[in-house]
Write a structure and sequence with these properties.
Order of helices and strands: HEEEHEHHEHHEEE
Helix content: 25-40%
Number of helices: 6
Radius of gyration: 18 Å
Shape: elongated
Number of strands: 8
Low-confidence stretches: 184-196
Distance between the termini: 29 Å
Strand order of the largest sheet: 3-2-1-4-8-5
Length: 196
Amino acid sequence: DIARLCDAAQPRSIYRVLPVEHTAEGVILGGLPLLGEDIARHLSGCKEAVLLAATLSASVDALIRRASVTDMTQAVMLDAIAGAAVERVCNDLETEIRTKHPYPYYTARFSAGYGDFPITQQGDLIRMLDAPRRIGLTVTTAQTLLPMKSVTAVIGLSHSPVQDARRFCCGKSCAECPYYNDCPRALRENPECFSV
């Protein structure tokens, strides 16, 4: 399954480094107001941020769709592999960004749909990147990215320590989470469970 997916994938990515402006109404990225308190918190202290997009290509979507007709187990496996693969593309792109734009601190990737950062801003984000023309990434009226195995995200760049404003499963210690004190999950009692 991995070999088939690798054969089908045509990974493409794009990013822009944009200025961040903090206002009383929220945060503005490259002239675009980003909605929600969580993205404003995520970019707190950042003067610049990276807006990125990555995709595995429509051929991967087609492979998963064909498999779902004949073997649903295989389709689920391909879908999971593709999810991991697009994260790998993002990780590689992030490594490139850190090399070309060295800052002492970076936030984690934060995507539309996380917390109260509305998914309805997907279209604005891909337009800022000219992603439809440059990497073939579009968004439907239902705010679904096409190809489906795609990601858009914002990474803050800072000269001061930053916090991850993602609510859950951030991959860091729960003790560092900005929601630690009012987290409804019992797992917060064992922050070492999520330590890396």
